[in-house]
Structure formats: structure tokens, C-alpha cells
Amino acid sequence: MNKQPIRNNLIIELHIPDFDVAKKFYSILGFKVILEHVPTADKPGYLVMKLTTEMGETLLHFYGGNDLVYNQSYFKNYPKDTKRGYATSITIPVPSADEFYNKVADTLKDHIIQPVMDKEDKEMKWRDFRMEDPFGFYLRFTELIDWGQ
């Protein structure tokens, strides 16, 4: 196995039952498969997809890929139809919320929760839009703001 430096110090694994659905959906968003261990009848798989923009790389890690995901020690305590991403927001920075939205809005219109909007709090203003992926993960595509990084 070729070991590469970690590109991100935080890896969040999204546990899903179907890699093909994820690959189709996230490919429309511009992500490309960079690693895939195909699940077998007795072993879950692993999938990593990457989006590259002028802002850098965004990696998404998926675990499972088949019904074995429902037997994971923690998640097996919940019904199979529980939204996978309940109470989780995945924020993906993009150079232009408008351009990114226009690129995917027609194809993924059934997944859009909130179209592009201006947002602000006491100190910042930004534009973003929100979607839900096929597994229930809540995605926020936002123009870069200062999160103290």
C-alpha cells in the first residue's frame, strides 16, 4: 500500500449503503473517485472522492457501500430508514456559490433545500446554498469566509 501524507487532519466517514449512488450524485457535483475498496458480501468497502477547485481540495470519505453498514456496532441501534446525516451539516467551500449552484441546480433540483442566498451575521456576509444528498446528509456550499482557520 502506498502511504501518502494526510491531506486533512480530520477525516469524517459517511456511512452509506450504496457507493454507486454516492458516486453518481457526487460526480455531478464535480467530485472524482480517488480511492475505492469495493465491498464484498462479508466485508464493507471504503470510498474517497475529491473535489478540486481554485480554493483547494475537499475530500469525502464513505464507509460501507452495502447492507453491512447497517450492522456497524453503533449505527445498528437505529432503524435503517434513519437519515444518515441527521443533525450534521457538511460545509464545502466553493469559489462562487452562484456558479457552482448554476452548474448543478437543474440536474440535482430535487436535492436543493435552499437556493443561493446572501447570509450575514454580526461580522460577516457570504453567499451559499444548501442541499441534501441521497442518504440524508445536509450539504452547504458556501463562499469562503473566515472561520478562524
Instruction: Report the oligomer.
Output: single chain
Look at the structure and give the CATH class: Alpha Beta
N-to-C terminal Cα separation, in Å? 32 Å
Indicate how many domains the architecture comprises: 1
Report the sheet with the most strands, covering strand number, pairing sense and barrel closure.
4 strands, mixed
Distinctive features:
single chain, mainly beta, 2,3-Dihydroxybiphenyl 1,2-Dioxygenase, domain 1, four-stranded mixed beta sheet, 2 helices, VOC domain-containing protein, Glyas_Bleomycin-R_OHBP_Dase
Explain briefly what this protein structure is.
The chain is mostly beta strands. Helices cover 12% and strands 38% of the residues.
Structure characterization notes:
The protein has a 4-stranded mixed beta sheet, with helices on one face. With 149 residues, it is mostly beta strands. It has one domain (13-143): 2,3-Dihydroxybiphenyl 1,2-Dioxygenase, domain 1 (Roll), CATH 3.10.180. It contains 2 helices and 8 strands; from the N terminus they run E-H-E-E-E-E-H-E-E-E. The protein has helices spanning 19-28, 97-104, and strands spanning 13-16, 32-37, 45-53, 56-64, 89-94, 112-120, 125-132, 138-143. The mean pLDDT is 90. 12% of the residues lie in helices and 38% in strands. This is VOC domain-containing protein. InterPro entries: Glyas_Bleomycin-R_OHBP_Dase (IPR029068).
Question: Layout of SSEs?
Answer:
Blueprint: E1 13-16, H1 19-28, E2 32-37, E3 45-53, E4 56-64, E5 89-94, H2 97-104, E6 112-120, E7 125-132, E8 138-143
